Amino acid sequence: MIRERLFGELLASPTGLDLPSLLSKMRIDAGTSASAAIESILMLSPEVYLAESRWRMGSRGKASRILSAIEVYTSSTGKKIFRASAALSSLSADEHPTADELREILGSSGGRFTLLPNDMIKRNG
User: Fold this and answer.
1) How far apart are alpha carbons 51 and 117 in whole angstroms?
2) First to last CA, the chain
3) Residue 102's closest CA among 89, 87, 117, 84?
4) Which fold, 2-57?
5) What is the C-alpha separation between 47 and 115, in angstroms, rounded?
6) What is d(CA 53, CA 93) in angstroms, rounded to the nearest whole number?
7) pLDDT for res 124
8) d(CA 61, CA 74)
9) What is the 3-state secondary structure (H, E, C) of the chain?
10) pLDDT tens for each residue of the chain, 125 residues long
11) Are 55 and 16 in contact (CB under 8 A)?
12) pLDDT at 115
């Protein structure tokens, strides 16, 4: 029952939840045995992964790795507008998406990221 409630909360939040927020939504106090059970379920469930301190539903497939690379890049650089190639440079060449794949993956990001056409981006210099 706890597992179903946990997954329900994560499914309702496409951008994921940090542990304190997740425990709060489930009305579980931190430091209790129920809190420890939640953390154990999160760490051992293949349906859940941690990215940028937020727990999310989904597998660590290609799309997840791409979104994670973009999230890490935006978090570390603070940039809001950037070239996709820069954000994906941490991935191996065979993991780089095609333009259509990237458009589809970003479309499934829950509005966190948007692909801008090149002509909308002004160049410095």
Assistant:
1) 27
2) 58
3) 84
4) Arc Repressor Mutant, subunit A (1.10.10)
5) 27
6) 26
7) 56
8) 20
9) CHHHHHHHHHHCCCCCECHHHHHHHCCCCCCCHHHHHHHHHHHHCCCEEEECCEEEECCCCHHHHHHHHHHHHHHHHCCCCCCHHHHCCCCCHHHCCCHHHHHHHHHCCCCCCCCCCHHHCCCCC
10) 888 999 999 988 878 999 999 999 999 999 999 999 999 999 998 788 888 889 988 755 788 789 889 988 998 999 988 989 999 999 988 889 998 999 988 988 878 888 887 766 666 54
11) yes
12) 86
Is pTM, for the whole model, over 0.70? no
Residue type, 36: A
Residue whose structure tokens are 């993956």: 105
